[in-house]
Design goal:
It contains eleven helices and ten strands. The protein is α/β, with parallel strands linked by helices.
Length: 254
Amino acid sequence: MTGWTALVLAGSRPGTDPFAASHGTDLKALIPVAGEAMVRRPVRALLASDGIASVRVLTQQPERIGAALPADPRLTVERSDATIAATLAAVCADPSTQWPVLVTTADHALLDEAMVADFISRANGADLAIGLVEAGPLLKRLPATRRTWISFRGGRYSGANLFALGSPRAARAIELWRGVEQNRKKGWKLLATFGIPGLLGLLRLRSLHQTTGSIGRRLGLDLRAIEMRNPLAAVDVDKPADHELVEAILAGRA
């Protein structure tokens, strides 16, 4: 098999999810977006993308998530570990994993073939690559949107829920991530984990690419930050306001 393996993370956090409950389900991935289960949208985009050889959906409830997905021989639905970092660590340690691996999430409802092509074309060959969107283009497109920003010299960035794992070597970064997983929305704690290079980025003394280059050298990895061409790559469905925004975008109203 040639091409990328795509992982779609469709797990749930412990306890009741009020956002999912408000849409009549207990699983966030099954919240309807534009008339279909949210998880179907990124899965469909990946299956339609050149360069993607297979799609693996990882979730704690594979039977229920699988029932909401299209039938396709390239698609499998598998049981995940309890956390994202543990799930990805297991993928890196599995000798049957087909590399390279693209990782995205079930709430990436605006993911399309062009975003996938943009990301994998520039992530190819990296040990680890992270998709990001700079604030300027996104706020020009959606002035009222609220995102989590990490600031560097020359710009503020929000995550695009797109990651590339080029080889088992990516496990070095994932092991560090496991230690701060509960703070993944708090950029300063994540950067602090990576020591002086990360803190210099936090203090805006270095640019995004200088910071990722320094962290990559510390880890012994080719670490790349991929600035996505389409700013909508930063829009996921994480709360009610996001859901309203994504449906408005899909309907041509935003």
